[in-house]
Write a structure and sequence with these properties.
It is a single chain. With about 250 residues, this protein is an alpha+beta fold. It has two domains: about 5-120, Phosphorylase Kinase, domain 1, CATH 3.30.200; about 125-250, Orthogonal Bundle (Transferase(Phosphotransferase), domain 1), CATH 1.10.510. Helix content is about 40%, strand content about 25%. The protein is built from nine helices and eleven strands. It has helices at about 20-25, 30-35, 75-90, 125-130, 135, 140-160, 195-215, 220-230, 235-245, and strands at about 5-10, 40, 45-50, 55-65, 100-105, 110-120, 125, 160-165, 170-175, 180-185, 190. The strands form three sheets. A six-stranded antiparallel β-sheet has the order 1-5-6-4-3-2. The longest helix is centred in the C-terminal third of the chain and has 22 residues, at about 195-215. The relative contact order is 0.11. InterPro entries: Kinase-like_dom_sf. It holds the Pfam family Kdo. Keywords: Kinase, Transferase. GO terms for molecular function: kinase activity.
């Protein structure tokens, strides 16, 4: 069996009308040469937004260096994110379309990777909407529709033994129309976990959603969300104990 110093994997899945994007995203080197406004920036990755051929694209680029070098020995986060988005889609949870993804390893060490998704028309993450469109949060019907979907999709992944591990308003897209759809995205850390560890990460997911919910939603609405998540009409003693842990989760960290 041969040994490769550099192992490159790049997958381009451009569809009809993506001619301009296909050229820009044809190789990983080209993707790292792209320049555009930064949407987010962290120690391991950053995201830029591009408008090509009449469509918006979000380019998330991972690069391991400095104090984050040891994390490179772990999973390929771009590949894991693609895998998780495909998993959500199989469960019937809408996700942005993945246009390209992949990465390169050097002597088995992940050096850099990227995942590119197409923007969802008329959709914005819940954190941004809460800050810029307070009228939507005041629209009872819109909030009910959105939070019911978030509760349903969260229940689906948890029932299947999967935990998101970064389930926050900023990682949920919502359409702004009268009958909104929501989309899960940005999930490079999520995975299936054993029953023994699942409860902790389920609590972490729900507390992550509640962190902004308690600022923008009423207590009855938050309780309604929890009941939708549990698919119940009344709280049990176990529910009350779990809710107490949810509302104090971030105070204890």
């Amino acid at each position: 069996m041969g040994f490769s110093v550099n192992d490159m994997q790049w997958n381009l899945a451009a569809g009809p009308g993506d001619a301009v994007a296909s050229e820009s995203f044809s190789t990983l080197d080209r993707v790292f040469d792209l320049d555009g406004p930064r949407v987010s920036h962290g120690g391991l990755c950053h995201v830029i937004k591009l408008h090509l051929g009449g469509r918006d694209y979000y380019v998330k680029r991972y690069q391991n260096r400095g104090k984050h070098l040891l994390k490179a020995f772990g999973r390929n986060r771009a590949a894991t994110e693609h895998h998780n988005l495909a998993y959500f889609a199989r469960l019937g949870i809408p996700v942005p379309r993945v246009v390209a993804h992949g990465g390169v390893r050097h002597f088995g060490l992940l050096r850099r990777g990227a995942i590119i998704t197409e923007g969802v028309p008329n959709a914005t993450d819940l954190q941004t909407l809460a800050r810029t469109r307070p009228n939507l949060l005041a629209n009872r019907n819109w909030v009910f529709a959105v939070m019911r979907l978030v509760a349903d999709y969260t229940r689906r992944i948890h029932k299947d033994g999967f935990t998101h591990r970064d389930l926050k308003w900023r990682n949920v897209l919502a359409e702004t129309g009268e009958t909104p759809q929501i989309f899960f995205f940005d999930c490079p850390s999520g995975r299936h976990v054993s029953r023994l560890r699942r409860r902790h990460f389920i609590l972490r997911d729900i507390a992550g959603l509640d962190r902004l919910a308690k600022r923008y939603l009423s207590r009855p609405m938050r309780l309604r969300f929890y009941l939708w998540y549990r698919n119940r009409t009344h709280l049990t003693r176990e529910d009350r104990r779990l809710i107490a842990k949810i509302v104090t989760y971030h105070n204890r960290r």
